[in-house]
Structure formats: structure tokens, C-alpha cells
Design brief:
It is an enzyme of class 3 (hydrolase). With 168 residues, the chain is of the alpha/beta class. The protein has 5 helices and 6 strands, in the order βαβαβαβαββα. It is globular.
């Protein structure tokens, strides 16, 4: 069984700009992400991105764009990420069971990567990240400058602090 850190993307690994990023020049990886991912990987964690990407269903961008952004994170982190799951749907356009706060993406990753739930974490920035992670019984870390979710076990200001919480 493998210990894992599940990661939301937007607002955790890259900057949340207050609007949906639709071009690669708007995609800004947060400070400390490359180093943090490398530290988690060195500590033996499998790293899996779990992200809602409603812009696909809305016609704002394609799954190729999502992968281009993912590959940019891979490039700066020495390919630290082991997998990515993304939900392209959006309720007003196309219903999907994959979209967080549902847990289907997590369940698929657990089965594929033989994840040890008791030794796994979720780092997210929203309540919708915390809900399925708590359902799956992961330890949860919310990265936010606002008031934290009641579902979060830890609330931190940045990704570097989240990595520190996992490794402490």
C-alpha cells in the first residue's frame, strides 16, 4: 500500500486569479510548489492531482490545455506528480459523478495506485476539496487566507506550510 498526497490544482498549485484561466500565459505556478512537491516525493508519497475543470464543459478550454498546465508543473518539479484526475463536467452543462465534492476521482485513484487511506492527505483550498477527502478518511489541509472549512484538519496560508504539516 502507498501513502499519498492528493492535491487540488487551482488555488493550491497555481494562482487563483478570480477568473477561470483560459490561456497558458495566465497560468502561474505558486511560489514554493516545485520545492514542496519534490520534498513530498522524497518522503515517499505518491502525488495525485484531483481537480474540477468545468471550463472544458463550458467551452472555455480543452483537456489538452489542462494537460499543458499539468505538464508545466511536472517540468518544474522533476516530474514529481504521479497522476492527474480531472472532472470536465459542470452541472448546468453536463452532469458528472466525478466532480468534487463527489469522491469518484479519489476512489479511482485509490484503486489504481493501491493507496493506504490511513496514511494519505488532501491539500485543497475549498470546502469542495475537504468534503470528499473527509468522506474517504484522509487528513485534510486547507490552503486559504480566509476562514478555514470545518472539514479541514489543518488550515495554512500557503503550499510550503501545507507540505510542512504533512512532513511533521
Amino acid at each position: 500500500m502507498n501513502k499519498c498526497v492528493f492535491l487540488d490544482r487551482d488555488g493550491v498549485l497555481n494562482e487563483e486569479l478570480g477568473f477561470q484561466v483560459t490561456s497558458f500565459d495566465q497560468f502561474k505556478i505558486k511560489d514554493g510548489v516545485a520545492e514542496g512537491l519534490k520534498r513530498l516525493k522524497s518522503a515517499g508519497f505518491i502525488l495525485i492531482v484531483i481537480t474540477n475543470q468545468s471550463g472544458i464543459a463550458k467551452g472555455h478550454y480543452t483537456d489538452e490545455f489542462v494537460m499543458k498546465c499539468h505538464n508545466a508543473i511536472q517540468e518544474i518539479s522533476d516530474n514529481a506528480l504521479d497522476d492527474i484526475y480531472f472532472a470536465p463536467g459542470y452541472d448546468t452543462v453536463s452532469k458528472t459523478l466525478s466532480r468534487k465534492p463527489n469522491s469518484l476521482m479519489f476512489e479511482r485513484a485509490i484503486a489504481k495506485h493501491h493507496i493506504d487511506i490511513a496514511n494519505s492527505w488532501m491539500i485543497g483550498d475549498r470546502e469542495s476539496d475537504m468534503i470528499p477527502a473527509k468522506k474517504m478518511k484522509f487528513t485534510t489541509i486547507q490552503v486559504t487566507s480566509d476562514e478555514g472549512s470545518s472539514q479541514a484538519d489543518f488550515v495554512v496560508d500557503d503550499f510550503t506550510s501545507a507540505v510542512g504539516a504533512v512532513l511533521s
